[in-house]
Amino acid sequence: MFDESEIKEGFICPICKSDEKNIEVLLKHFDEQHSEEKDLITTFRDVFKIAKKKILNFDEKTFENTLKISKPTNPFQEYDFIDEVQEIGLFTNHFEYFKAIRDPRIERYATETNKLIIRLNKLLTNRPNDPQQIKQHEQNLVPWIDGKLVKLCPSCAKSFFLTRRQHHCRLCGSIMCNDCSQFLSIDESKSIISPSNESKQDDSVDIILKQPEDSIRMCEHCLHLLITRKEMQDSKLSKPIITKIYEQIETLKKEIMPHITMYEKMIDSLYKGDSVYTLADAGVLRGKIGSTAETLDDLSKKVLTLKCMKGSRQEAIQKSLRMAAIKFIKENMLTLPQIPVEEEIKKIQQKRIMELNQKIERDRRLAQEAFEKYDLSENYPATSSKTGSSIKMVDNWSGFQQNIQVNANDPLVEQMNIIKGYIKQAREALRFEEIETLEANLKELQHEYWLRAQQKENSEN
Amino acid sequence: MNLIKAVQMYIDKMIEEAGVGMKILLMDRETTSIISMAFSQTEMLQKEVYLFERIDSGRSNERLKYLKCIVFIRPTRENILRLSNELKSPKYGSYFIYFSNIIPRTDIKALAECDESESVREVKEVYADFLSINANLFSINIPTCLHALNWQSDALDRSVSGIIGVLLSLKIRPTIRYKIGSQVAQTLAKRVFDTINKESSLFSFRPPENGIPPPLLLILDRCDDPITPLLTQWTYQAMVHQLLTIKNNRVDLSNVAGVPSELKEVVLSAEQDDFYAKNLFSNYGEIATTIRDLIESFQKRAKEQKKIETIADMKNFVETYPQFKKMSGTVNKHLVLISELSMKIGKRSLLELSELEQDMVCKPDHSAQLQKIKKLVSEERINVEDALRLILMYSMRYERHANCGTVGLLNSLKERNGRTHLVPKMLEYISQSARSELFNTVKITDAVKLTRNLIKGLKGIENVYTQHVCVLKELLEEIFKGRPIDQQYPFINSSEVPYRRPPTEIIVFIVGGATYEEALAVHQLNQLGYRVILGGTTIHNSETFLEEVIAATNGAPFKHSRSLQAFHNASNA
């Protein structure tokens, strides 16, 4: 049927096997006739892309090959093993063993500490006021060691006599001299028993008091256990201001990073003449980034003003935090490109539109020329009529759908309006990622709508 | 096989394991250098490490419980004791402990017993126990490692752990060869071999695929090539080290006249400085051209900056600002370095000296060379230390020559108050095999070497200042070509079956220090696709090498230099 030399294999439709002669025509044919076979389309398109690449590359490659011969290899590479993916070096984990040694010890301490806390609790509840009664109360709860058995103070090894009298630890009942006794104030004891009602930030107060009026006498060992416990509680419960500010800073940093990349993308797209984002969008986003920078700056300054000793670690860390914040602002926020001026953008956009129009015009002309050529030579059934067929007609392409009404009831128009509404909302909420996809949707719809309008025109003709 | 990357990955892993939040890094003297070679302080700030502290310096008792503490220390006795004390009264909220090498279990037990507040979250061994200077160059940072021509015991221990660190960081279980005749190389090779066998569970890496020989660890001795560290260098890194001294990637410029305050000490790190990374191995001529181009483009930009008229100009400026700023810093730094180098080269007539040095080590021409040296040594414009270098090379080169003029040269050096005692010391330091092989006094029987020398002679000289080829380069080429080296470089494990194919990966370790000239040779081989890593007890320039020679020959009897008795004592100078 066809002159074989005229059939270009590359332009046969893979579904209906019709020869379409030319890239533009084939794509158009495919869009119209086989739009349902979506997955096929994509594979087809991919194949096409590859083919296109190969064809285009063919010349480039031969060109490159000739270049390669003359291109000298760079003698000074930065690294020798540059392309190598390096595996991390060996690790040996000793934590299991460490824990196996530590944990039983801790456990032993923990049971002992718990015992002490229970006793401390009992000592404090229903504590009588009269000193004589206190002693009775204490002795009832904790069995005291018999003084006759102990001749020397167990911690300092000095013998007891008239001026060095025996004292008992109120928690374990052991004996020591006055010099070796430790005291824990009632207030502190209470805070150890119920840490939740402890709210003071001031941890600089020395909790160990030397023999005050209202306190509990105990041996060094018991005190050590209690203090260790208290410290662990404190570090778990209290959150110093610096940590709170630091967390704020880090959250801000994390939140602003996507905005910064978005902004850069936006500026880039504006300079390219895309209309996805407007200048106003960029302005708003820039404002947001700017205000975040200010907040970051303020927060890090606040860190600097926190109370601290000169030359202390606290001071060093405050300075270091401030420095890190300044670096972050400098590197990520101050270097942002300026917003382009409106006129400039307009110029760019117009230029782009002109270029696009020219391209469309050129493509169309080429396609037309191709048509005419084949139309004349083969008397091939007029493909132009096919441009009229709508997507709804694929299963039955004998007829044309006549009435596509261009009015507000058109679902396409409705859809477009909805999407426009969404875009507006998204813009107000500064969700530029969404705007991008919505804009893409809108474009597709607009294209569809345009196709239909064309089709209608055609059918009217 | 990138050493810098290996250390970086270890550090990143430590920081990652500590999780988010403010962190402090607790280190010792050596690990501080190890980390500073891999990351700058700014980079550490970005990783939420805000405070750096040395465990071995006086520390306050101030507690900051909201900080996480990453401990990275060497597993030494003192460090374990210090860490035990730290854990008994913890200053920080939680501890993540990393040792830079193998730690005995008893030490872990001792630490575990101190952790009463349950603040330790991690205890690991990582093996970043060396200074990564370039991607393929490491140092153990021991300035002098020998005494009476034998190991100082702590230097030996440190070298073993350094090499073990490199092997484990790169997951390599090598075969080991050493230079025959070198007692120190053999001792080190044996110790490394024993450690690998003792810790065989650590070294249980998958052996290479069929037939590919395992990587080779080659242990050499500096006294087999004492010439290389004495030569004037002409590639950037080597020049800077030779003339200004690089210490832990830092160059002290504080006594250079007219240097701005921020450049009193400059950091030369291939990781952080692109310009440096690209020009590390460029020669003096190339680098001068590059820096001129750089300045020109910089000036161009600076000029552009002056006439910001349109918005596009401004935008351009702002957009390029970070690089602009960075670039101006780099340009300044390298400009200062280069001008200082060229000032020294001019002042010390190094081009002239270098020509003579190269001539002397590559060509036998005794009388002419002696005449030149005689003239130069007595001249005031020649630096006394440079004169000493010339005499040192001459004395080794022509030790056995019938008309050896070393005594005469030493006498004129003495008149200039030079360190004459170094010459006899050097003659004690140089090894027996270097005496017979280092210079082109080739025996007729060694056909290969003879032909090679002939070919070399025919080819002509490309550059008078870089004729010298270090022993290491020739050796590595031989190995990669598959030439038999068993005679000269035997395996430490005599039962080792030699593979038919040459190894594809080689780690070289030079006892007594490597040099940047050798690093360049290794780099050139790597460019050809070989995989070589170079390390040494330290990285020497002439000055530090002479210190090493003095320390190494201390306490050694004078055997070879009896004829120079008059110059033996330092006090004579």
In terms of DSSP E residues, the strand content of chain A is under 5%
What is the mean pLDDT of chain A? 74
Name the overall outline of chain B. Answer: globular
Straight-line N-to-C gap of chain B: 47 Å
The number of helices of chain B is: 21
- CATH architecture of the largest domain in chain A, please? 2-Layer Sandwich
Largest interchain contact: A-B, 57 and 69 residues
Fraction in helix of chain A? 55-70%
In the CATH hierarchy, the third-tier topology of the largest domain in chain A is known as: Herpes Virus-1
Low-pLDDT segments of chain A: 1-5, 51-82, 197-207, 380-406
* CATH class type of the largest domain in chain B: Alpha Beta
What oligomeric arrangement do these chains adopt? heterodimer
Strand arrangement in the largest pleated sheet of chain B: 6-7-17-15-11-10
Protein name (chain A): FYVE-type domain-containing protein
InterPro entries (chain A): Rab4/Rab5_effector (IPR052727), Rbsn_Rab-bd (IPR021565), Rbsn_Rab-bd_sf (IPR036531), Znf_FYVE (IPR000306), Znf_FYVE-rel (IPR017455), Znf_FYVE_PHD (IPR011011), Znf_RING/FYVE/PHD (IPR013083)
GO molecular function (chain A): zinc ion binding
Keywords (chain A): Coiled coil, Metal-binding, Zinc, Zinc-finger
Written account of the structure:
- The complex is a heterodimer of chains A (461) and B (573).
- With 461 residues, chain A is mostly helical.
- Chain A folds into 4 domains: 11-68, no CATH class; 102-237, Herpes Virus-1 (2-Layer Sandwich); 241-332, no CATH class; 379-460, DNA Excision Repair, Uvrb, Chain A (Irregular), CATH 4.10.860.
- Chain A contains 12 helices and 5 strands.
- Chain A has helices at residues 23-33, 38-70, 95-124, 131-141, 186-193, 220-237, 241-272, 279-305, 313-333, 342-378, 411-428, 432-460, and strands at 92-93, 167-168, 175-176, 182-185, 215-218.
- In chain A, a hairpin with a 6-residue loop joins strand 2 (167-168) and strand 3.
- The radius of gyration of chain A is 42 Å and the shape is elongated.
- Chain A starts with 22 loop residues before the first helix and ends with a helix.
- Residues 1-5, 51-82, 197-207 and 380-406 of chain A have low confidence and may be disordered.
- With 573 residues, chain B is of the alpha/beta class.
- Chain B folds into 4 domains: 3-126, Rossmann fold; 133-225 and 470-540, 3-Layer(aba) Sandwich (Rossmann fold), CATH 3.40.50; 236-347, Syntaxin Binding Protein 1, Chain A, domain 2 (Alpha-Beta Complex); 364-443, no CATH class.
- Helices cover 48% and strands 14% of the residues of chain B.
- Chain B is built from 21 helices and 18 strands.
- Chain B has helices at residues 3-18, 29-38, 41-46, 77-88, 105-114, 153-169, 183-198, 236-244, 274-279, 284-306, 311-347, 350-362, 366-378, 384-397, 406-415, 422-429, 432-437, 447-459, 471-481, 516-527, 542-553, and strands at residues 23-27, 49-54, 64-73, 92-99, 120-125, 131-134, 137-139, 146-147, 150-151, 175-178, 216-221, 246-247, 250-252, 265-267, 505-511, 514-515, 531-536, 539-540.
- Chain B has a 6-stranded mixed sheet with strand order 6-7-17-15-11-10, with helices on both faces. Chain B has a 5-stranded parallel sheet with strand order 2-1-3-4-5.
- In chain B, strand 4, helix 5 (105-114) and strand 5 form a beta-alpha-beta unit.
- The longest helix of chain B has 37 residues, at 311-347.
- Chain B is globular, with a radius of gyration of 26 Å.
- Chain B starts with a helix and ends in a 20-residue tail after the last helix.
- The model of chain B has no long low-confidence stretch (mean pLDDT 87).
- Strand 1 (92-93) of chain A pairs antiparallel with strand 5 (120-125) of chain B, so a sheet runs across the interface.
